[in-house]
Amino acid sequence: MNTEMTSPSACAGGGKGKHRSRFIGVALSALAACLFSGNAFAWSLKEAAAPYKGMTINVVGLDRPSYKAAQKLTPEFEKETGIHVQWTNFPYESTLKEETLNFVANSEQFDVILTDVVWPVNFAGAGWAVPMKQFMDDPKLADPNLDLKDFFPVWLASFTVDGKLYGLPFDSYAGLLYYNKAMFKAAGIENPPATWDELKADAAKLTNKDKKVYGYALQSARGETQTADGFARFLWPWGGRFLDIPNKKILVNDPKSVAGMEFRQGLLDVMPSGIVSDDHSQVVEMLSQKQVAMITEWSAFYPTLSTGPVASDLGIAPEPKGPDGAYAAFGGFAYMISSQVAKEKQDAGYLFVQWLTSKEMAMPLIENGAVVARQSADKDPAAQAKFPNLKPMVETWETATVPDWRPQLQCYPRFSDIVSDWGSRIELGQTPVKQGLDSMAKDLTSYMNSSGCWNHANTPQKYISMYK
Fold first, then answer.
1. Distance CA 247, CA 67 (A)
2. Are 59 and 84 spatial neighbours (Cβ–Cβ below 8 Å)?
3. How would you class 29 by CB atoms within 10 Å of its CB: exposed for 0-12, middle for 13-18, buried for 19 or more?
4. What span, in angstroms and rounded, lies between the C-alpha atoms of 226 and 232?
5. Which of 114, 259, 388, 416 places its Cα 20 to 30 Å from the Cα of 307?
6. For the chain, what are the domain ranges?
7. 234 with 324: CB under 8 angstroms?
């Protein structure tokens, strides 16, 4: 707690004779200013948490670097507050299911819930999450140094539904280009590619099939990786889009979308065979073992790559631009507070989330391998010099991505399944590009119309201006 008080000389004094009554009035005013000044009663986490001391809160996490960092630092929160934090980690693929079952059964198993950028409309739309305003308007809970404007606007917009903020960003990713500088030098390539056309040309120079070395690898495993990485990465930069929500129209088979997917097919010749079965860990390992020269992957993989065999030759840059501009992959998470648990649990959970996502915790988290969306930390020159993933990550969030990278739909899981199914068939060459995209569009249209999913869609892009 900030214990700095107004100086004694300002809060004490004396007076005699006819001036005594006047002095008393002035002294009382000074005393009131002393007692009720911000310095005398500065907010502190310890005092805010006092009513919840001894309580246990349950927090959802993942088996990823950011959560390992958070769990390593959690004892600091517990020591300061007396609140115990119980972590439950899930594989990403089962997290939404586990959290949804918790809510449907009203089991109150989780107090602090984790949301991917495509899930806020699920939790908020069902009334399962508490708007952040409830806590931020409470002076007993709200840290006056929270500083919402220190978060990147694109991240706050991502967790805003119907104009209300439901989560504070944590474990925030940008798609980046990772490359092997030594392999580039050997091939006579001076700079990382700035466009996808340049990447394709460079990859051809870097590919030596006799030695089983390839210029590029794109994680394309069936499932969310195919949708968010293998497919979306060649949609947005070409001017393609998933859908037009106001007009209730699917756009995955329009000419621009077709052009992007045809370009993706052209990259297969510079990628390892079987790439359609490879997930994130496989392509990261390929780059680490110098089997490929370039990958486009999430910023969260920097700790793995920077400590592996390729570390001394690791280069990092923004993802290449397409014909329609720079649209790098966008993904990550935030923490929300469950509406189903007792008010005391909500308050204690908010204190933890506020602490974990604070400016003060940003650098300790980064130092321990996490990725955060705090401008003050990510733009710090010393931090950028030490962690070379930060500068291109900042550039991406500020100029080269959209929070609508994947559509925010309550029916997103099935939507993603359809995209993944047809996207995989196209990449495997089982169906021509245009024919496969037409089939995808037909299935998506049928599903969206029959499920009423159009009525439960969120467009976070429109909320960015709220946070600038």
1. 39
2. no
3. exposed
4. 8
5. 114
6. 1-42, 45-172+331-399, 174-330+405-454
7. no
In single-letter form, the type of residue at position 420 comes to S
| Phi-psi domain of 147 (left: phi exceeds 0; alpha: psi -120 through 50; beta: other) | left
Which positions ≥6 away from 342 have C-beta within 8 Å? none
154: how many CB neighbours lie within 10 A of its CB? 24
What pLDDT, in 10s, does the model give residues 255-276? Answer: 999 999 999 999 999 999 999 9
Give the global pTM: 0.89
Q: Which CATH superfamily is domain 45-172+331-399 in?
A: Periplasmic binding protein-like II (3.40.190.10)
- As given in the structure block, the two tokens for residue 35 are 């007692």
DSSP, res 5: -
How many distinct helices (H) and strands (E) make up the chain? Answer: 21, 13
State pLDDT tens for residues 301-328: 999 999 999 999 999 999 999 999 999 9
- CATH topology for 174-330+405-454 is D-Maltodextrin-Binding Protein; domain 2 (3.40.190)
